[in-house]
Design brief:
The protein is mainly α. The chain has eight helices and four strands. Helix content is about 60%, strand content about 10%.
């Protein structure tokens, strides 16, 4: 990550800290009332081939001791009513502002992968994770809805893993590498603006 990109992340995160902090307090209160504790969900993600960190979200699913892998149709019955609304609006990702301030993530970059996929595709992710993982990115903007549709049709954890590995990871990686080769401040601002616009249009 360049100094300019890191400086941009810090300045923007600090500017957003007060308004988003207020929004996080409201969301946390609603979740506490409607679904109880825990309010937050921490997931191990990778920022480099051998660098793990805890990515924070608001909890949107009922806890499960055997939870693993990406979310697909096999987990749909665990999503809470409040969680479904948070996911649709992407408000569940607000706590990642603190991941950005800590330096684990950027506003724009490849979505941080789970360890199991980094270990399954080491060469691919060695290239992709030369960019700091982001809250949104070119792959998220272009492919996220199609990925959701593909995974929503999966009826088991094994099918979800198979579809994600074969059909999602290669496409997302190509888009992430395109972003990496063309990354500029203007491109980051365009991706952020398009992401905000897309979220605002979702019902």
């Amino acid at each position: 990550m360049t100094f300019g990109k890191r400086l941009f992340d810090i300045v923007l995160a600090l500017l957003l800290l007060f308004p988003l902090g207020m929004a996080m307090n409201v969301v946390a209160a609603v979740l506490l009332i409607t679904q109880g504790r825990p309010i937050f969900y921490g997931s191990e993600r990778m920022r480099g081939p051998a660098q793990a960190f805890t990515l924070w979200k608001f909890r949107t699913m009922r806890p499960s001791a055997t939870d693993s892998g990406v979310s697909g149709g096999d987990k749909a019955n665990r999503v809470t009513p409040a969680g479904a609304m948070l996911r649709a609006s992407r408000l569940d990702e607000l706590p990642q502002l603190f991941n950005i301030l800590k330096g684990d993530m950027s506003f724009v970059g490849p979505r941080p992968p789970l360890r199991q996929y980094v270990e399954a595709f080491p060469d691919l992710y060695a290239a992709v994770l030369k960019s700091r993982p982001g809250v949104t990115g070119l792959a998220s903007l272009i492919y996220h809805r199609h990925e959701e549709w593909l995974l929503s049709r999966c009826a088991s954890a094994e099918e979800t893993d198979r579809v994600y590995s074969r059909r999602c990871i290669p496409v997302k990686a190509r888009l992430d590498l395109i972003y990496q080769s063309r990354r500029t401040l203007c491109l980051d601002l365009w991706i952020l603006a398009r992401t905000v616009g897309r979220v605002a249009k979702r019902p």
